[in-house]
Known about the structure:
Elements: E1 7-10, H1 28-37, E2 40-43, H2 45-48, E3 60-62, H3 65-72, E4 77-79, E5 86-90, H4 96-113, E6 117-122, E7 129-133, E8 139-143, H5 146-159, E9 164-170, H6 178-184, H7 193-207, E10 211-216, H8 240-248, E11 252-254, E12 270-274, H9 281-286, E13 293-297, E14 316-318, H10 321-332, H11 350-358
Parallel strand pairs: 1-2, 1-12, 2-3, 5-6, 5-9, 9-10, 12-13, 13-14
Antiparallel strand pairs: 4-11, 7-8
Amino acid sequence: xxxxxxxxxxxxxxxxxxxxxxxxxxxxxxxxxxxxxxxxxxxxxxxxxxxxxxxxxxxxxxxxxxxxxxxxxxxxxxxxxxxxxxxxxxxxxxxxxxxxxxxxxxxxxxxxxxxxxxxxxxxxxxxxxxxxxxxxxxxxxxxxxxxxxxxxxxxxxxxxxxxxxxxxxxxxxxxxxxxxxxxxxxxxxxxxxxxxxxxxxxxxxxxxxxxxxxxxxxxxxxxxxxxxxxxxxxxxxxxxxxxxxxxxxxxxxxxxxxxxxxxxxxxxxxxxxxxxxxxxxxxxxxxxxxxxxxxxxxxxxxxxxxxxxxxxxxxxxxxxxxxxxxxxxxxxxxxxxxxxxxxxxxxxxxxxxxxxxxx
Length: 359
């Protein structure tokens, strides 16, 4: 019997303090494991970016959050590519030495990894990134000069033929903040993630090309107590390597009639999400589609309290990603997961149930 590719969407919303996926690419092991179960894994940069660490997965589609929402809503398709030509935007606020570190990454990616990197552009104004944290602990942010960002992206696309955009913006240094220390020790929220999402959303919404962001920051002082989950961000001067690798094969976005090989929202078979973070656009657009499994992981705690039950989403609640992998294996095999449990409830007649409701 011929079956279509089994497709899994892995969601870990950014900037919400997720216990797994809220740090420096620490959901990569989850993604790697799922990629062995699924024919296709769709996920976002927040899951796959580990600063200078990354892991190539031929069957993983690296999709920015706004593009993911458009895909899930059925407005865009995902069009796999062999290679993208990447253009890089530098914030004018980046100091010359720090900019040089990032330029060295770009040249190293060309020479060592063979990536196709176009020219770079420096914004005509400092972008003016500011960071915020909500009372619930989720991070967000703003940029003062969004038009400058968009002008730079347009130049790269129009003049350099860029098919994907990496943005390097100067983020505020705050080495002494309590929130940063908590994050480094594996206890807090990524204070940069919310603002990073704003930047990439702007570019993807305006130009419909893949985009991801790498913050430019002054390296922090060495600290032996840094959590393993945050340690990837302590290894060097830039976070750009993983972004360039991800964008190099990020799928293009298709609108209008699908082309052969395009991945459509109707092909998603299962979604994994933290149990407490079920309010995202992609999940809400897909959640109650027939034959789709939503798997909610309870031990991936977040700063939110939006469980699937509150939104009327039918979900299988599991404790861990290890358990979630078992559900995926069963689902792919066409085995109802509850049949693997030692006890099964009795089936009830539908007519009686309807009569009781009517009474």
